[in-house]
Specification:
Elements lengths: L1 E3 L5 H17 L4 H13 L12 E3 L4 H42 L5 H23 L4 H68 L3 H51 L1
Parallel strand pairs: 1-2
Helix pairs in contact: 1-2, 2-3, 3-4
Length: 259
Amino acid sequence: MEKIDSLMSLQGRSLLRDIYHELRYEKQAGSFAILLTLWKICVFERDINKYIKREVQISYVLGFWRGTMLWMQEVVNRYFFAVINSFVYFGAAILLVLIGLRRFSDLLTDEMVIAGVIFEAGMLATMFIVMLFTPDDEQEKYSTQGESSDSALLMDEVGEISVDFASAVVQLEEISVTMKAFVTNQGQILSKLEELNQSYADMSNPNPKMIGIMEKTNAELQNLQQNIETLNKAAESIKKAEIEAAVRKELERILQSRI
């Protein structure tokens, strides 16, 4: 809930204008009802919820005299000065007509002319009182400057938020590029790991093709071993025959020398 210290403040005066515009243009209330309602608000009302679509609470009421002065300044003088001025001109016109008719005709009595003078004097007195409570131009200027400064401050905050948002977008783009590079590197690492796991699997569990190659190699090695054994046997038989031939030749030589 919004809280305002007093209706005499700039916020309070702005609130009175908002209430007037809502009563006048949204609720289509009459002029007398608007005057009475705003006078009640200025004098003793605290909760403004039933008069406006905002939750506003007044901390300190102004009382009869100060509330009426504020009502004259912000309501009567601001929104009904033209009406009062029109009545003043209307009373002056009536007074001139009465004086003219009284001078050139006996149809009007002196009492009627005096009543016209009293009416015009009352209207002039009313206009004097209304003009006496004319709002201060300095307050209007200060209020306008405050609203413009608030708008400028809001624009500055929006600009700062936009700059921060743009910086965040740039950082997010950089993070996105980094994440894409990370995902690419991770994919390469995963492929290398799969190849390494396949190599380990091949080493621990050879595939059937490798087993067939190893069996074929073993068979060829066995054949080679058999051939080597055969060659060894043939070499031994050849060596034995050579020894026997050498022995024969030596015996023949010995026998020939003795004979």
